[in-house]
Design a protein that fits this description.
By secondary structure, the protein is an alpha/beta fold. The protein contains eleven helices and 14 strands. The strands form three sheets. Strands 2, 5, 6, 7, 8, 11, 12, 13 and 14 form a nine-stranded mixed beta sheet that branches.
Length: about 300
């Protein structure tokens, strides 16, 4: 069997949060007339190997093939399929063929749900675009899980999700690993700018993430740019950007995830459904599961 190998305790935390939300979500909506869908945009293989090591030595490892494991975690796809109250449909997207082949084998592990499982070997943004167009025509509600390794998710994709008015979103936003590491202390690196423009959907980060400093000497004044944010401030910026497009809510609480004390990702929640009952339910369920893991709350003054 082929497994993914990476992460550590932060990997388990994000998966626990997602599983707990999916469990509460399906139970809360089981008597509704519409169908429910779980869309996993970076589904992997269904299982994850977390190599044995101490918390202080954790890091992200590349994909490797293993036959034995120190600790095997059930991935997001397998956890979703094991829920007491199932979804009506599961869409698992994975770009790499070797991983999507493993996902397809889940049908044998869950024969009662086999006709509900759809595996797509494709780019996450492309599949999400198709899904968002389709869901507008259907009587259903969905939970989308975005778990990229870096800056793969474009702002245009988030807009499509928001415009459906039917999707609850869990987004592992790469605040540290994908954004903060690309922002240099003395100014951004131009080749990285397009990636950040695509991820954040604006060029305003150029002024928000930096401050202009005036240095005076015997020869006059000199202006220079100085980095003014960390991963927490970047998350705050993204939260406010998302609030502009999601008609439901963008939850104020979020989880800081990473290893070796480094803030790599921010696990964020938003709902596109603008109806008051849907907002209240999503807020209650998401708040409960995320606070159980120790949420971080951004303040407007935080950078």
């Amino acid at each position: 069997m082929t497994l993914q190998s990476f992460g550590g305790i932060h990997t388990e935390i994000k998966l626990d949060v997602l599983e707990n939300y999916l469990d509460a979500y399906t139970k809360a909506l089981k008597n509704q007339k519409f169908q429910t869908v779980f869309f996993d945009a970076f589904a992997g293989t269904g299982s994850i190997e977390v190599p044995s090591r101490t918390e202080s030595s954790e890091g992200l490892l590349p994909f490797i093939d293993v036959t034995t494991s120190d600790k095997i975690l059930e991935g997001s796809a397998r956890r979703a399929l094991k829920l007491e109250t199932p979804f009506h449909q599961y869409i698992f997207v994975e770009k790499l063929r070797r991983k999507s082949n493993e996902l397809s084998r889940l049908k044998a592990d869950f024969p009662a749900l086999a006709n509900r499982i759809f595996v797509r070997t494709a780019d996450a943004n492309d599949e999400l675009e198709r899904f968002c167009k389709d869901i507008k025509k259907q009587n259903c509600r969905a939970v989308v899980f975005l778990d990229p390794f870096g800056n793969q998710i474009s702002w245009d994709t988030l807009q499509l999700i928001a415009e459906t008015n039917k999707i609850d979103l869990w987004y592992l936003f790469p605040a540290g690993l994908g954004v903060n590491r690309q922002i240099r202390e003395a100014g951004f690196h131009e080749p990285h700018a397009e990636s950040l423009d695509r991820l954040l959907g604006t060029k305003d980060w150029r002024t928000f993430f930096y401050e202009t400093k005036i240095e005076n000497d015997l020869f006059g004044s000199t202006e220079r740019s100085e980095k003014a944010v960390n991963a927490k401030g970047i998350t705050f910026f993204m939260q406010n950007r998302m609030k502009e497009i999601f008609k439901g809510i963008v939850l104020e609480d979020w989880l800081q995830l990473g290893s070796r004390g480094v803030h790599m990702y921010s696990l964020m929640f938003a709902t596109a459904n603008p109806s008051a009952p849907a907002i209240n339910l999503a807020k209650r369920l998401a708040s409960d599961v995320i606070k159980s893991r120790g949420a971080a709350r951004n303040r407007r003054t935080s950078k």
